[in-house]
Amino acid sequence: PRELVIAMDGPAGAGKSTLAKIVARRLGYLYVDTGAMYRALALKALRLGIAETDREALAAMGATTEVRLERTADGGNRVLLDGEDVTAEIRSPAVSAIVSRVSAVPELRALMIEQQRAMARSGGVVMDGRDIGSYVLPDADLKFFITASLQERARRRQLQLRAEGHQAELGQVEAEIARRDEQDMNKGAHSLMQLPESIVIDTTGKEIEEVVAEILGHCRRA
Ligand code: C5P
């Protein structure tokens, strides 16, 4: 059968990247983590001491920066920033704190979106982000909106942070996610939003396998 283009959007911590990666692996598709691309840019800004509010400097930085995604053996993404592997470093709380603002710079988005579209051109892709179904790949065969309650998303993010060696209080993680939601829902054409054609999946209280089966069911029917 024809290889599908699948968009997966949703708020931070809803389980999108976990699900997208598994679904891509099951289908033999390429998984593309677009958030990781913006995180790499945010990391570079941090390193250069460029403020997340300095649009001009950020745009100039983007023009001389190379962000590349590579497929890892387990079907995930390795993130290369100017050739350096920054896959682990881009998950730091410092990056999470500024990435939404950095990713709002139109010049940076234009550069990343061009690459994202190129990666989806021949189909067989599961792309995870915020504006994939609405803006990056409006013609996607399937558009999922993956969500979960704020409390559950904060709990999951805290576990993930711990596994990566970062300690954080639940209340603090919840506040950080709520702030990012707010910013992510107010980015004009690139806002996180549920589309009329979105298949909404609430992962609150569900096992990963259960949700994977649900998503694969939709893929089979498409
Ligand atoms: O998915 P993740 O939480 O790693 O994304 C980090 C941030 O990058 C998001 O909070 C959002 O502000 C931004 N982003 C975006 N558009 C995308 C993917 C991520 O603006 N397609």
Automatic annotation (TrEMBL):
GO terms assigned for molecular function: kinase activity
Keyword annotations: ATP-binding, Cytoplasm, Kinase, Nucleotide-binding, Transferase
Catalytic activity: dCMP + ATP = dCDP + ADP; CMP + ATP = CDP + ADP
Transmembrane parts of this sequence: none
Compartmental location: Cytoplasm
Pfam families, alphabetized: Cytidylate_kin (PF02224)
E.C. numbers: 2.7.4.25
Chain sites annotated for binding ATP: G10, P11, A12, G13, A14, G15, K16, S17, T18
InterPro entries the UniProt entry points to: Cytidylate_kin (IPR003136), Cytidylate_kinase_dom (IPR011994), P-loop_NTPase (IPR027417)
Stretches assigned to the Cytidylate kinase domain: 6-218
SUPFAM superfamilies: P-loop containing nucleoside triphosphate hydrolases
UniProt KW ATP-binding keyword: yes
Similarity remark: Belongs to the cytidylate kinase family. Type 1 subfamily.
Name of the protein in question: Cytidylate kinase
